[in-house]
Write a structure and sequence with these properties.
The complex is a heterodimer of chains A (about 210) and B (about 250). With about 210 residues, chain A is α/β, with parallel strands linked by helices. Chain A contains 6 helices and 14 strands. In chain A, a hairpin with a 2-residue loop joins strand 12 and strand 13. Classes of the chains: A alpha/beta (about 210), B alpha/beta (about 250).
């Protein structure tokens, strides 16, 4: 069993690698099409701006590879910006097209009077239920109200509410903190920085890749 | 309101964790990695590694330590001490740090805060400020781990680093640091009133009750402690329990 972490020149991936290794996964960094398509699970990490992320995926020639991988119905997980890239488009710095694997768009976190003062949202914050069952998902055996670590200014708004696996509240706004569509998952929080609960979520994903 | 973060601060000299009083008289207290893992396992929210002598010797050397820490510590890690170029930040992040704390370089060249926060994002840039009381209600900024006075006023400097794009301020009271006699509450009250970015209070905590006293009086986002944990006076869970008993929200 091999899990590929996509290396497209963005963000700090060492801690994601360490977290997967810590949970016993055979995990490797790659930007090679063949290796990606052969892997049993795929992780799309990322921090920073949406447009920068898409540009890098394009220049590494990975956009179609990820779409092809998703069509194989093997487990795929986007983390932070990686989750946002799964959607159709983002309004960050004008409109940028995303991977379009999940219907919906990415918008700036609504704040009071649209002030940027409270952004980015950098905090431990709770995972709340969206009445979508967590059983057999990456959130299996995670308790409602668990604290996860967030660092972001933008959030995904899935078109279909049933894709929203969990909600998290910031400044009275409930945003989608994790998403599921078939075998495609996304976490807005950083499971690799969220202590034992985060590791449990990574472990759940690894089990799916083994299945 | 965000949850109050409890942060373990580990000052490092060569390969040892060290602790002084008023940032001086440093003595070895253990292996920084073992300590970080223990605090992580006990529920700490963040770890800050500070190279205590880096600025003084004009170097920074924590990347190996960070790489090792990342294998067993799955929470945000900040690294500080001797960060003075964009490449230093790149190296720290590549080694697995999430944030860097910058003091001496920022005082010498304030634009460094602006430049680095533009490249890496504000969430990545922590302005570390060392404050020493000069008279009632007035504190001076120090650099080089409490060695060098700068003539700058702490409140004005704190406002300025916020404007330049720092995402957070780690504010250390040199007067209280290592004393275990409680925080300089006036300092944190004054600075918190003047800035909108989160403040990590560092220096003086001797028990959970000190944190309660601070948090009930000043709008602070995180408390950093070294002595309490290094000397095993209280565990992370004991500190958090004390906060919870006073209706202060923390990650459990």
């Amino acid at each position: 069993m091999k899990i590929a972490i996509i290396d497209y020149g963005i963000g700090n991936i060492r801690s994601i690698l360490s977290a997967f290794e810590n949970q016993g996964a055979n995990v490797f960094l790659t930007s090679d099409k063949g290796e990606i398509l052969k892997s049993d699970g795929l992780v799309l990490p990322g921090v920073g701006a949406f447009s920068h992320g898409m540009k890098n995926l394009e220049s590494y020639g990975l956009v179609d590879v990820i779409k092809e991988y998703a069509a194989l119905d093997r487990p795929l997980m986007g983390i932070c910006l990686g989750m946002q890239l799964l959607f159709e488009e983002s309004e960050e710095f004008g409109k940028t097209e995303g991977l379009g694997l999940i219907l919906g768009k990415v918008v700036k976190l609504p704040t009071k009077d649209n002030q940027n003062e409270n952004l980015p949202h950098v905090s431990w914050n709770k995972l709340n239920s969206n009445k979508v069952p967590w059983k057999n998902t990456i959130l299996a055996d995670t308790e409602e109200g668990s604290d996860m670590y967030f660092v972001h200014s933008f959030v995904a708004q899935p078109r279909d509410s049933y894709n929203i696996l969990s909600l998290t509240e910031y400044l009275n706004y409930h945003f989608c903190s994790s998403v599921k569509k078939g075998n495609i998952y996304g976490c807005q929080f950083h499971p690799e920085k969220s202590g034992p609960t985060g590791l449990k979520i990574i472990n759940n994903f690894i089990r799916m890749c083994e299945a | 309101m965000n949850k109050i973060r409890v942060v373990a601060r580990i000052d490092v000299k060569n390969e040892f964790a060290i602790k002084g009083i008023h940032l001086e008289g440093l003595r070895k207290v253990g292996n920084p990695n073992t300590m970080a893992r223990n605090y992580y396992n006990d529920g700490i929210d963040e770890i800050v590694f500070m190279d205590a002598v880096a600025a003084y010797y004009d170097r920074n050397s924590l990347s190996e330590l960070i790489q090792e820490a990342c294998k067993g510590v799955f929470i945000p890690i900040t690294v500080g001490g001797g960060i003075r170029t964009i490449d230093d930040i790149k190296n720290a992040l590549k080694s697995g740090a999430d944030k860097v704390a910058i003091n001496t370089k920022a005082v010498k060249d304030p634009n460094f805060i602006m430049q680095s926060s533009k490249i890496f994002g504000s969430q990545c840039i922590v302005s570390s400020i060392e404050a020493k009381l000069i008279k009632n209600g007035k504190w001076e900024v120090y650099t080089d781990n409490g060695r060098e006075p700068t003539g700058k006023d702490v409140i004005e400097w704190a406002k300025h680093v916020g404007e330049l794009g720092a995402g957070e301020i780690m504010l250390t009271s040199i007067d209280k640091e290592g004393t275990k006699k409680g925080f300089d509450i006036d300092l944190y009250k004054s600075v918190a009133k003047s800035v909108s970015i989160p403040i990590i209070a560092s220096g003086g905590m001797g028990q959970g009750a000190d944190a309660v006293e601070l948090l009930e009086n000043a709008d602070i986002d995180a408390i950093a402690t070294a002595s309490v944990l290094h000397c095993k006076m209280e565990s992370v869970q004991e500190i958090k329990n004390t906060l919870l008993q006073h209706q202060i929200k923390v990650r459990i």
